[in-house]
Amino acid sequence: MSQWHRPARPARPAEPAIEQVAQVTQRLAVLLAAGVSPASAWEYLDRPGADGGTEGAPATRTGSGAGPAGLAQPVPIIRAAAAAGRRGDSIADAVAAEARILGGPVGEAWLGLAAAWQVATQAGAPLAACLRQLAASFRELGQLHTDLQVALAGPAATARMVAFLPGVGVLLGSLLGFDTLHTLFLTVPGWVCLAGGATLMLAADRWNRRLVRSARARDQTPGLELELTALAMTGGGSIDRARALVEVAAERFALRRGQSAAAIEQVLALSQRAGVPAAELLRSEAEQLRRDARSDGQRRAATLAVTLMIPLGVCVLPAFMLIGVVPLLVTVLSSTVLVF
After folding, report:
1. What's the pLDDT tens digit per position in 245-274?
2. How far is Cα 338 from Cα 178, in angstroms, rounded to an integer?
3. Among 206, 215, 193, 195, which residue's Cα sits nearest to residue 159?
4. Do the beta carbons of residue 324 and residue 167 sit within 8 Å?
5. What range defines the domain where residue 316 resides?
6. What per-residue string of b and e applies to 204-221 under the rule 16 or more CB within 10 Å gives b?
7. Into how many domains does the chain fold?
8. Are residues 32 and 118 in the same domain?
9. Which are the contacts of 35, defined by CB distance < 8 A and separation ≥ 6?
10. Of the residues 142, 168, 187, which one is the last residue of a structural domain?
11. For residue 61, is it left (φ>0), alpha (ψ between -120 and 50) or beta?
12. Cα(83)–Cα(279) distance, integer angstroms
């Protein structure tokens, strides 16, 4: 009896790497809130049976970069943190060392997690709430990266289609009986057209890459310094000690400070005038900075869909004319002159 097989489902697009950092951060927050010790939390994430599998069973992998417990994230970071916890070394330093190797936006996100871990450890403050806020910030950044990919998809598909048009023009000329290939590759006008078209296509590619880079989030952890200051004060330390801990962490883990220092001073001044706890005001200001960063990112993503059409009109379409149309016209005119 014949068996019917269900058609394979199309592969899901890969999640932004920043989402993977958010997943780990959220799981750490849940474990810590449930009373698991910091060192054991990393150990549970590194343990192959952490998701309910059999203890000692092979780790479940979702892809070439998948980690233990089904986490599609860089394995070395979790393993390095778990190993540091077992040895009694600094977990924050272990995470930061691997994050610097990664580099880029994902490395910056891991460095933000390392800074939060360091400040909480030194201040003796509960870390779970801060990690939850950090995970939410990472998820918003992941959504921003997805929006940028969606904004890029249309213009990129159009550019790829137009990039094939020169070949279509050359093929059409050949089908009509004109030797456009000879004109394009074996004559001086053809070389000029070919060089000009290639230069324009290269310029369009570099222009598109520059536009995409400028639209991406500049700060992977907006409001983190305010959140760290509130975290340090929650541990019972003074304002001066909280500032010192955050400044050391910011320098040690190369955090982007931006206007956070000025915002912290304003919030602390308001707290003293109003006689209210500074930690809550700092968290509120950090949340506002995250909302501003999210709105700014959405605006950049929407603008990117329009600005990416500029290289298409300025570079790609002229390249098509130079490679696909001009050689055909030169061949037709040459044939016409020879006939007469």
Report:
1. 888 888 888 777 666 677 887 888 888 788
2. 13
3. 206
4. yes
5. 152-216+309-339
6. beebbeebbeebbbebbb
7. 3
8. yes
9. none
10. 142
11. beta
12. 33
